[in-house]
UniProtKB/TrEMBL annotation:
One Pfam family, short name: HhH-GPD
Source organism per UniProt: Acidihalobacter aeolianus
UniProt key word Transmembrane: no
Protein name: Endonuclease
Leader sequence residues: none
PANTHER family: A/G-SPECIFIC ADENINE GLYCOSYLASE/ENDONUCLEASE III, DNA REPAIR GLYCOSYLASE MJ1434-RELATED
One Gene Ontology molecular-function label: metal ion binding
GO biological process: base-excision repair
InterPro entries: DNA_glycosylase (IPR011257), HhH-GPD_domain (IPR003265), HhH_base_excis_C (IPR023170)
Domain HhH-GPD residue range list: 41-198
Keywords on record: 4Fe-4S, Endonuclease, Hydrolase, Iron, Iron-sulfur, Metal-binding, Nuclease
Length: 231
């Protein structure tokens, strides 16, 4: 399935989100390596819980690949408890760390072309497209557009993309419509997340939404005189 986005429409969305929420200063981690750990740990949990798990790890070992790999699996899992699914995540983290060391660490990985690096990441147990793209964008500074559930929900409601389209079709649509720039893509993703948490929630708060004038869901409700969702 091929998806397309209109560049002018997408830019209007960005401008309104940026005006409403401002610069987001993502990703909230200290080093590229922590970004990568966080990208795995944040699967199905909030960043707050990831922070707690990272703090526990920091208190136990040096936060580097060799030290974490040398940790017995059950000890690693125990430190990851705050992030949920801790046994599963310990297994995924161990698989990633083993691959990371085999490849020669950050400098060696960063020397790879984006397509090769992405393909390598996707070959690691437990790393799917969203996690790989989080790492590529925020740890390696590559212009790769991250598609998450918030992106699907927002652009589906805006009537600009089919929310259930395959990941690669959606990623392709954004990357074709928005000039390749890692910093800008990072800001885009952060703004989508901010908006999904603030207004375009599972039960949307349309009455306060900066995208209201662009959104068919809101316009339909206004046309039939029904109140927009609000808190
Ligand atoms: S108007 Fe409502 S449905 Fe549309 S983007 Fe805003 S919050 Fe989401």
């Amino acid at each position: 399935m091929t998806c397309r986005l209109d560049t002018a429409q997408v830019e209007r969305v960005y401008e309104r989100l940026f005006d409403a929420y401002g610069e987001q200063h993502w990703w909230p981690a200290d080093t590229p390596f922590e970004v990568m750990l966080g990208a795995i740990l944040t699967q199905n949990t909030s960043w707050q819980n990831v922070e707690k798990a990272l703090d526990r790890l920091r208190g136990a070992v040096l936060l580097d690949a060799e030290s974490l790999l040398s940790m017995p699996r059950e000890v690693l899992a125990d430190h990851l408890r705050p992030a949920g699914y801790y046994n599963l995540k310990a297994g995924r983290l161990a698989a990633f760390l083993a691959w990371y060391c085999e490849q020669g660490g950050y400098a060696a990985l960063n020397a790879l072309e984006t397509a090769e690096l992405r393909s390598g990441l996707l070959g690691v147990h437990g790393i799917g497209p969203e996690t790989a793209d989080d790492m590529l964008l925020y740890a390696f500074g590559r212009p790769v557009f991250v598609i998450d559930a918030y992106t699907r929900r927002l652009f589906g409601r805006l009537g600009m993309l089919p929310p259930d389209a395959p990941y690669e079709s959606l990623r392709g649509a954004f990357e074709a419509a928005i000039p390749a720039d890692a910093r800008h893509y990072g800001e885009w993703h952060a703004l989508i997340v901010a908006h999904a948490k603030s207004a375009c929630r599972s039960r949307p708060v349309c009455a306060e939404c900066p995208l209201r004038g662009l959104c068919p869901a809101a316009l339909r409700q206004e046309a039939v005189g029904r109140p927009l969702y609000s808190n």
